[in-house]
Amino acid sequence: MSAEAANPLSTADDAATDVTVRKRGRARIDLRRLGRAALLGATAGPAPRDRLPDAIGHVAEAHRAHHPEADLTVLRRAYVLAESSHRGQFRKSGEPYITHPLAVTLILAELGAETTTLTASLLHDTVEDTEVTLDQVRREFGDEVAYLVDGVTKVEKIDYGAAAEPETFRKMLVATGNDVRVMSIKLADRLHNMRTLGVMRPEKQARIARVTRDVLIPLAERLGVQALKTELEDLVFAILHPEEYETTRALVAGAPHAPDALGAVAEQVDAVLREAGIGAEVHVRPRHFVSVHRVRLKRGDLRGCDFGRLLVLVAEDADCYAVLGELHTCFTPVISEFKDFIAAPKFNLYQSLHTAVAAPDGAVAEVLIRTHRMHRVAEAGVVALGNPHGGPEPAEQPEDTAPPAGPQDAPASPAPEDGERVDPTRPGWLSRLLDWQQSAPDPDTFWTSLRADLAEDDEITVFRADGDAPGTISLPAGASCVDAAYAQHGEAAHACLGARVNGRLAPLSTVLGDGDTVQLLLAQDPVSGPSPEWLDHARTPAARIAITGWLRDHPESAAPADPRHRPRPDDRPGTRPDPRPADDRRSGAELHADVDGERPAAVRPAGCCTPVPPDEITGFRVSGGSVTVHRSGCASADAMRRIGRPPVVVRWGDTAQGRVTLVAESFGRPGLLADLTEAIATAGAAVVSATVEPPSEQRVRHTYTLHLPDAAELPALMRAMRDVPGVYDVSRARHRASPRPRPRRT
User: Fold this and answer.
1) d(CA 311, CA 512)
2) pTM for this model (two decimals)
3) Are 542 and 435 spatial neighbours (Cβ–Cβ below 8 Å)?
């Protein structure tokens, strides 16, 4: 199948009645003819063991084109079981039901799927819709085929509904985490269903098209299956945007000479490459409808070359750059259109050089340059890479065969001899998705988060600077240090204070770029939790779900006193209550509380005001049976009273030590941080954590969480910090009812 998907000159109605075969010289296949062949095969008895039934001859032909040595015996047996079990069943369009698994299998065969995937595809509806059991599939075809069939069956057995559809996709994605071929079958299944969607009610067509647009098309993109993705886009476009679709179709139909314009440029390119002695194939690639629509929105009026692109295929990576050099030498390059996805491949395995050149007549043509292997992966993605576990195809497995390896124990796929990329068992984006979906508290949260996650169509890689655990973190484009913290540390990121990005201190709101180095700074002895403002900077579902859950369990930390004022991001890093039990940390000053005659699970100082002896204090019960202690007059304490939380009597113990968070406001100057740290050390306090915000109008805010051996020394410590040159205010951290005015610099 073409990476540009369906020929834009074919209509949606054509797609709804035919399975379009993309191989050169192969005609369209009529589903009704396939149905008749299936029925004739049934009435004439089973096919001899030495040949395939006529109805899957097209599948065999397409499969052998990619795998000349494939053993087709298992396909014959799978077809016989599928045809006999679906006999008497019909689709809503009137064809025998067997035409559906045949069409799905043909789609995958055209993409180059290996025999195991095709076997499971033929059987993908048998366990769900017939009397065939999963044990029967396992006995006859082995555990690997049974796993793939079971993965798709779990999806389709659940009835659609408000809560069922999210759970359907959750189960399917979990199965895909062990074997991406489950998703390959699902995508081909959805493509054929979309091709034949015209028999359904308009409202059902629209609902299925929206799910396809929001979930399955992004999944096809992330798995690199461009051939399925682009055709699905056109089918969804025709259903959800019929007016724009008809406008685009008429625009394409009204440009009959567009292929000639590109063909002329292709001939010039071919001549240039032949003269340079570079062996290459030059093809004209028509754009699919959605691509034409996007180009029209971007450029306005379209010229002949805008209706397609040139594709140059070569043998080796080095030839790609040789072609690029010749094109940029012999034609006028459009530099802004150049992209190198060979040196920096996309996260979905895509590799290619993109450029655009202006021909002598002024026509501008976009050009894609890639090797033949890159082209196969660009069109079929993970489907073209076969078994993700690298093992042999279990065509004739015995009954006691061990189940297929999961992602943890699967043998690594052997590297190809030519050194080109191979598909990992579990792509990074899929690992992230599987991690956060376990934390989604309900189907609605999962469904909303899934759509938001899949809407991020690009990915970045950042490098961890941890000396004991170097490595990389994969994140969606636009992710911040907050996202990196939760991706690396999970719920331990609640104690994150800040970060170093490329060696420089940075707030957690900093947006990361591809290739950045990030070091997350965690409190060594934390009393912290996430700030509500972190949600403004969290792009990943993992971070948002974790932060929301913590704030839900700690309502006293969720809102400032005045709703008109939201403190700046990272105003109070390291000043949120610690969600862990008190015996998991050193609590500083000793606190006691009595709740209905019982001792609470934990008594801890609140991070919003960090009380220390001899402050007047009051306490409140929070989830988990703990008590948080606030200074009298704390805005959070007032908020707790307003929502009906009864106060708890608390008192200081005998110890004089304590912990406090101080905010120092200062003018920026060299050496300021060192001078402040020296003043704190001279006063006898220990720095638990510290963060420095980026300068704003040459003013800097430092936030310190300090351990005091004697809380009575706090006033003296604050005076010592104020005496540091450049510091104009030192205060206890607290929720502010209004922003503190900053003095004018004289």
Assistant:
1) 34
2) 0.60
3) yes
Question: What distance in Å separates the CA atoms of residue 558 and residue 565, rounded to the nearest whole number?
Answer: 13
The pLDDT assigned to 400 comes to: 39
Q: Measured over all CA atoms, what is the biggest interatomic distance in the chain, rounded to whole angstroms? A: 100
For residue 4 the two structure tokens come to 């540009």
DSSP string of 617-635, one letter each residue: EEEEE-TTS-EEEEETT-H
User: How far from 201 is each of 12, 165, 214, 239, 454, CA to CA, in Å?
Assistant: 16, 19, 20, 12, 28
Q: Which residues contact 174 (CB under 8 A, 6 or more apart)?
A: 434, 437
Place of tokens 């689709």: 91
Residues annotated as catalytic are 128-129
Rg over alpha carbons for the chain, rounded to the nearest Å, is 32
For residue 459, what are its two tokens? 């990915």
Residue type, 279: G
Both tokens of 670, joined, read 């060299």
Say which DSSP state 214 is in: I
Residue appearing with tokens 């005001």: 609
Neighbouring-strand partners of residue 520: 499
Asked if 537 contacts 569 with a C-beta cutoff of 8 angstroms, the reply is: yes
The stretch 17-35 carries a mean pLDDT of 42
Edge to edge, the sheet with strand 658-667 lists 686-692, 699-708, 658-667, 727-732
**d(Cα 605, Cα 503) in Å, to the nearest integer?**
33
pLDDT of 311 higher than 50: yes
Residues 698-701: contacts with CB within 8 Å, 24+ apart?
Answer: 698/667, 698/668, 698/745, 699/665, 699/666, 699/667, 699/668, 699/742, 700/665, 700/666, 700/667, 700/668, 700/672, 701/571, 701/663, 701/664, 701/665, 701/666
CA angle 611, 614, 619 (to 5 degrees): 45
SS3 278: coil
Q: What one-letter code names the amino acid at 678?
A: E
Residue with tokens 């008109």: 564
